Amino acid sequence: MYTLYGIDESGSCMIEIALQRCAVPWRRVDAASWAEGEGSDELARINPLKQVPTLVTPNGQVLTESAAILIHLGLEYPASDLLAGNRAQIIRGLVYIAANCYSA
Ligand SMILES: N[C@@H](CCC(=O)N[C@@H](CS)C(=O)NCC(=O)O)C(=O)O
User: Fold this and answer.
1) Which of 27, 47, 73, 102 gives a 20 to 30 Å CA spacing to 59?
2) Which domains, ranges and CATH numbers included, belong to the chain?
3) Which residues form the pocket of ligand 1, taking CB atoms under 6 Å from any ligand atom?
4) What is the pLDDT of residue 101?
């Protein structure tokens, strides 16, 4: 079971869509640096930056960085078609957004 730390109206929604496309069991823990609560406390213990999305894989690995999470899921579950098409351009686009748009 994947555990996604995230919250409505944040970047974690794209990982929710990706997990749906992978057809894997997953659950969401409501968490964000701006939201007080048990989920956010739990998130702080596994990701000191308290950023969402943060994904815990079934074998307990903690993954941060939206682009890395999407690439991981696309490689792990090819039938999701997350990386279908021109893979070089898809990865370039993901890194472009992370490098140039997210922080801005
Ligand atoms: N480099 C991260 C950035 C994630 C990020 O900045 N997420 C925002 C929400 S969409 C966040 O958690 N911001 C709160 C904070 O940085 O304290 C990624 O690409 O996933």
Assistant:
1) 102
2) 2-102 (3.40.30.10)
3) 10-11, 32-33, 50-53, 65-66, 98, 102
4) 87
Q: Which residue lies with its CA nearest to atom 12 of ligand 1?
A: 51
Q: How far is CA 47 from CA 16, 55, 93, 97, in A?
A: 19, 10, 25, 21
Mean pLDDT for 71-91 is 97
Instruction: Spell out where the chain has E strands.
Output: 2-6, 26-30, 54-56, 62-63
Query: pLDDT digits over 25-63, tens only?
Result: 999 999 999 999 999 999 999 999 999 999 999 999 999
Query: Which one, of 52, 56, 43, lies nearest residue 11 by Cα?
Result: 52
Substitution site in 40, 52, 72 for ligand 1 pocket (most atoms within 8 Å of beta carbon): 52
Share of the chain above pLDDT 90, in %: 95
